[in-house]
Amino acid sequence: MAKRFEVYFATNRNKLGEAAPWYGEVFHKQGSELYRVGKAVVERPKKDDYRLAEVETFDESAGGADTASRTLLGSSRLFDELKARMRAESRDLIVLIHGYASDFATATERAAELTEKYAYRDKDGKTRQPLVLAFSWPANGETIPFTSYISDRQDAAKSGVAIARLFFRLCDFFLAEAQAARAAEGEAERARHAACPARLHLVAHSMGNWALRNAVQAVIERRGADRLPAIFDNIFLMAADEDEDALQDRLKLGLLPRLGNAVHVYHSKDDQALVISDITKLNPDRLGHNGPLDMLATDEKVVAIDCRHVDKTELTHANHQYYRLKPLVLEDVRAVLAGQRAEEIANRKPLTQLRRYLIEPPAGQGDREPGAARRRRSDR
Q1: Any idea which fold 3-379 has?
Q2: Distance between CA atoms of 318 and 373, rounded to whole angstroms?
Q3: Which of 44, 51, 59 is CA-nearest to residue 20?
Q4: Can you give the pLDDT at residue 62?
Q5: Backbone phi and psi for residue 145, each to the nearest 5 degrees, phi listed first
Q6: Bridge partners, 36 (sequence order)
Q7: Hey, is 141 helix, strand or coil?
């Protein structure tokens, strides 16, 4: 029997209908800054085979003349449901921003994959499986170089405002809950609005980091650099299709650390997918290749994790999907989510440069999947 995962989504794609493929490859008909929300069911009939099965888009129409008959706005329903589940099920929430060439189905399938693979063992010994909310911007799902890449890059940039609005909505929701808890009369009402002990995290993969840059700049434009909301606990920049100086430039991702408690940059010089960005932008200096250009110039919250020894995937993945496919990278992410200190995480080798680490396979294992044949050390 196929395993089933329930995930959530926000998307500024155009809605096609109530059946597959549900959402298309262009923006919401009223503008790129608008998004819809909902939840989806993804099935996994076998390992690493995730398939979108069901989609429910939450109603955004208030409807009805009187308060009792008005439909709860979709975004309100989304956050109410997430908070209730985070509290009742002791689950963190991960916001996922996908990369280049991902259609709507792929975005929800990746969300389900992280739900399963980013489950970590907490200090009490229990396994915590996160809830995942995927923001799906209108990448076209094609991997043909140049034209598709450039189109996706433009759409990712235009999606920055919509992603920023989602961040604001997250922040405002939890702030409103805190205010309601303080104003509540009676234990039952206070308990209903009490702060959720679970945490929020952010994962941006590949071109999703370019979308994130534009979202950060939209947040700064609306709130000011000195009023950025600290929404997230951990921020993971995976195989980032961004400039290697992005985290030291206030006009790029330099102020991103103000949105969270820690920023983890996973990178590999052997990531072949980023070559497309090198060619089309005439700029080979990718954050996802080299990590941050100058750690001394980045915020002290930033940590760089070199994955070049553990990134090998099948040819079609081009060493670009290690954030979800490679066991040692997954172990590293789970250790971060479990709250382990950077220098204490297994298989990390500290490098001479500040806050830089290299993931190395245990002696004799090489870069391999569990159960696979051992590789010679010279193959690394």
Answers
A1: Rossmann fold (3.40.50)
A2: 21
A3: 51
A4: 46
A5: -60, 170
A6: 11
A7: coil
